[in-house]
């Protein structure tokens, strides 16, 4: 079996990235989003500010992690926000951890001093991944939004990087 490697996403990865995102949307544990994304919409991420990494086993994309700007205010230029999605068939094998570790390195190398994230309080896997990758849970955001009409609590997380870490 090929080793799992993490690398920047290429245009040919986009259908798999979209499929993995849509699997996460359908699972109703990852995001408030409910509309499946077309590959064309996901392809636009490659042109936008930020970073998109994929974890691949040979030709097969197993998951992705993305960093986007936290804010359009320049005072927060050092803060990035992450999202990570792994195909259901590849979860629990350390792929999410590999992706998030690589994204933290990438964020630091590009001069970010902090990476933040946010997940549903009920998303045990995402909270465990964040903790394992060195993120701190900041608190509990009660009733942060509704998914299918039901209130969901969220947990924001943060990890300091580079000089800020010291
Ligand atoms: C969250 C997600 C990305 C984690 O990826 P993964 O590849 O399955 O996670 P890993 O195998 O790298 O595990 C990372 C850590 O989380 C733990 N973990 C993984 N799944 C878990 C689960 N279901 N319950 C509790 N802990 C879990 C692992 O034990 C590991 O911790 P450790 O290093 O202390 O042992 C994946 O479950 C996923 O894609 N879920 C659907 C999309 C989603 O919710 N994305 C997050 C949106 S905020």
Description:
- With 166 residues, the protein is α+β, with helices and mostly antiparallel strands.
- It has a single domain, classed as Aminopeptidase (3-Layer(aba) Sandwich), CATH 3.40.630.30.
- It has four helices and eight strands.
- The chain has helices spanning 14-27, 39-43, 95-109, 124-132; strands at 4-8, 51-57, 60-69, 79-86, 114-120, 136-137, 141-147, 150-160.
- Strands 1, 2, 3, 4, 5, 6, 7 and 8 form an eight-stranded mixed β-sheet that branches.
CATH hierarchy class name: Alpha Beta
How many DSSP E strands?
Answer: 8
The domain count comes to: 1
Shape: globular
- Indicate the radius of gyration in whole angstroms: 15 Å
Question: Main sheet?
Answer: 8 strands, mixed
Number of helices: 4
Look at the helices and sheets and give the structural class: alpha+beta
CATH topology annotation: Aminopeptidase
The succession of helices and strands, N to C, reads EHHEEEHEHEEE
The whole-number mean of residue pLDDT values reads: 97
First-last Cα distance: 39 Å
User: Percent of residues in helical segments?
Assistant: 25-40%
Short description:
Strands 1, 2, 3, 4, 5, 6, 7 and 8 form an 8-stranded mixed sheet that branches.
């Amino acid at each position: 079996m090929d080793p799992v490697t993490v690398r920047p996403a290429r245009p040919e990865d986009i259908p798999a990235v979209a499929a993995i995102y849509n699997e996460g949307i359908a699972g109703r544990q990852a995001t408030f989003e409910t509309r499946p994304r077309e590959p064309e919409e996901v392809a636009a991420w490659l042109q936008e500010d930020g970073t998109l990494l994929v974890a691949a086993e040979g030709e097969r994309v197993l998951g992705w992690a993305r960093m986007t700007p936290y804010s359009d205010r320049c005072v927060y230029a050092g803060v990035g926000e992450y999202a990570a999605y792994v195909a259901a068939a590849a979860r629990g094998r350390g792929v999410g951890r590999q992706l998030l570790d690589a994204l933290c390195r990438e964020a630091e190398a590009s001069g970010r001093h902090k990476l933040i994230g946010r997940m549903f309080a009920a998303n045990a896997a995402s909270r465990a991944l964040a903790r394992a990758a060195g993120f701190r849970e900041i608190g509990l955001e009660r009733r942060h939004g509704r998914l299918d009409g039901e209130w969901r609590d969220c947990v924001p997380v943060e990890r300091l990087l580079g000089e800020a870490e010291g």
